[in-house]
Amino acid sequence: QGKQKKTRKYAVMKRMISLRDERLKEKDRAKAPVKKKEDPSAIKEREVPQHPSCLFFQYNTQLGPPYHILVDTNFINFSIKAKLDLVQSMMDCLYAKCIPCITDCVMGEIEKLGQKYRVALRIAKDPRFERLPCMHKGTYADDCLVQRVTQHKCYIVATVDKELKRRIRKIPGVPIMYISRHR
Questions:
Q1: From the candidate CATH numbers 3.40.50.1010, 3.40.50.1950, 2.30.30.30, 2.40.128.120, the one assigned to the domain spanning 55-177
Q2: In angstroms, rounded to a whole number, what is the distance separating the alpha carbons of residues 18 and 162?
Q3: CA dist., res. 129 & res. 127, Å (int)
Q4: Cα–Cα distance between 126 and 130 in angstroms, integer?
Q5: Its GO CC terms (predicted)?
Q6: In Å, what is the CA distance from 149 to each residue of 72, 157, 158?
Q7: Strand order in the sheet with 176-177
Q8: Is the model's pTM score more than 0.85?
Q9: Per-domain residue ranges for the chain?
Q10: In the Cβ-directed half-sphere of 133, how many Cα atoms lie within 13 Å?
């Protein structure tokens, strides 16, 4: 007969006494927050987000040819897999001149992917691509693209990433370009 093994239950934690428990001494207890009475004559301030002047209802008036398109890392990779010429397929999609823009964060992300994605790096260093400098810390490209699009509504975002598309759809007036069925 062997000894029975006791397995610890998943996410078990010791129970802690709250600071308002009556078993604690009066000096150790947390004080209840005191509510201030509101002055009815005081001016009430609310923080309402300022809507950009470029939006006419849901229509973005800053968008127009030549289109500036912010390109994401996976958009370049998917265009290689689908054997698409990036600039030419953008122009075929929008029927106008397109200027693909690539941020320092996206460039850093492609460089980090290493030797396997050297073709994507060569495409990103194309002179037709406009380089946009980044002033923030870190190289997380999704946050960088969302921040840039929130500030300036003159960009179209080219991405295949579902999570990034979901985040950008919440920002009004920003169109999304993506690759589906090799088009």
A1: 3.40.50.1010
A2: 42
A3: 5
A4: 9
A5: small-subunit processome
A6: 13, 8, 12
A7: 130-132, 98-103, 67-71, 155-158, 176-177
A8: no
A9: 55-177
A10: 1
DSSP 124: H
Place of tokens 């179209």: 156
Which parts of 6-117 fold into alpha helices (H)? 73-81, 86-94, 104-113
The position carrying tokens 């927050």 is: 33
How is residue 161 written in tokens?
């990433």
> How far apart are alpha carbons 144 and 168 in whole angstroms?
12
The runs of H, that is alpha helices, within 68-140 are 73-81, 86-94, 104-113, 118-124
pLDDT score, position 136:
82
Instruction: Please give the single-letter amino acid code of residue 164.
Output: L
Show Cβ contacts of residue 112 under 8 Å, excluding neighbours closer than 6 positions.
139
Amino acid occupying residue 33 = P
Comparing C-alpha atoms, which of 11, 146, 8, 12 is closest to residue 72? 146
Distance CA 53, CA 67 (A): 19
